[in-house]
Amino acid sequence: MLVNRAYKTELNPNNKQITLFLKSAGTARFAYNWGLQCKKELYQATGKSPSAIDLHRKLNRLKQIEYPWMYEVSKCCPQEALRDLDTAYQRFFKGISGYPRFKSKKKGIGSFRLTGAIKISSDKIQLPRLGIIKLKEKNYLPVNKHILSATVSERADRWFVSVSVREKIDISENVGGVVGLDLGVNNLVTCSDGEAFSNPKALRRSERKLKRLQRSLSKKKKGGNNRNKARQKIAKMYIRIANIRGDNIHKITSQLAKNKSIIVIEDLNNNGMLRNHKLAKSLADASFGEIRRQLEYKSTWYGSKLIIANRWLPSSKMCSYCGNVKEISLSERIYKCPVCGFEADRDLNAALNLKSVAVSSTETLNACGEDVRHDMVIMQTSMNQESNTTFLGG
């Protein structure tokens, strides 16, 4: 199976290369903002929006006269930036994201993408107009693969390269079992087989240090070097938090995708849950959406199947033994069924209900987001209640 895969690692550039990085990122940011302004003006005047190709042709004509400094970097920088602008508009019209905004250097130096003659060795990478750059991690980037592009980005004075390649992967038959996954704040993932993965709570555990760093930043003079140093310390702290969270999620999703043949998770309304100001920080720190995103592509890589259960399935309110549905508050960590007397951990009970979706019914959402029948929950509940009546001798 042919897939597009990205490999990201840190670069070890010299001062001259860092200067070229900054120029390239600045050119890409300028081209994006210039294209966005052109699109706005032309749409207001004519009601039409130019494509990335039209904007690139116009920019090429202006290079020689108004922007000769753009010749110092690769032509791919403005060209790929305008393509990204087109993609941003497409996502806006599809309702996926908001209207494109102008990019600001205050929010980060940004990134730029390169295509063409890109060569990789064990400890170096050669990029167009940038030359040979050392890598901090050896033997990680693929050497003999079809390279599509390379994206160079900066975070807290550290430069990274993400290489997108087209490669063939062998998908073997996955003989693991069926598992339902309940996502939570205390335990990040609770499996229907009893296994639970803890939540590192990277942001919560770093809050005290972040507050201290933010307090120190507020006391520094604006525009001074000390303020820039304080800002870099905060940026490095946020990178560390993101790395802890990302490493934990990658380990969990890889283990599940490799060892389970069928995985069932809920179709959570993440944006809606984040509106709860009491839980927003904890939910954002858990990154439920990232768990689903990784499971979607890793299940394809490792031969497993991901099922997205109906959003309206009352997995936390329904008894996994008899199917009775009751109201339950967030403070109740043990589910106690008033009908059959079944007791279990709240998250484990929800995971068992999700597993039953894969075992007893195929009327669910798949990873592509296909629709489901709304009466699936009613059918599931009635089947469980009938079995409970037989068990009790009714």
In short, what is this structure?
The chain has helices at 15-46, 52-63, 76-93, 202-205, 207-218, 225-259, 270-273, 280-286, 288-301, 346-360, 376-391, and strands at 2-12, 111-114, 119-120, 124-127, 131-135, 146-155, 158-168, 177-183, 187-191, 196-198, 260-266, 305-309, 334-336, 343-345, 365-366. With 394 residues, it is an alpha+beta fold.
Count of individual domains: 2
Net shape: globular
The chain-level structural class is: alpha+beta
The pLDDT mean sits at 87
Radius of gyration: 26 Å
Strand content: 15-25%
Could you characterize what this model shows?
The chain has 394 residues and is an alpha+beta fold. The protein has two domains: 2-168, no CATH class; 172-199 and 242-394, Nucleotidyltransferase, domain 5 (2-Layer Sandwich), CATH 3.30.420. It is built from eleven helices and 15 strands. Strand 3 and strand 4 (124-127) form a beta hairpin. Helix 2 packs antiparallel against helix 3 (76-93), helix 5 (207-218) runs antiparallel to helix 6 (225-259) and helix 6 (225-259) packs across helix 9. The longest helix has 35 residues, at 225-259. The chain is globular, with a radius of gyration of 26 Å. The N and C termini lie far apart (53 Å). Mean pLDDT is 87; it is low at 362-394.
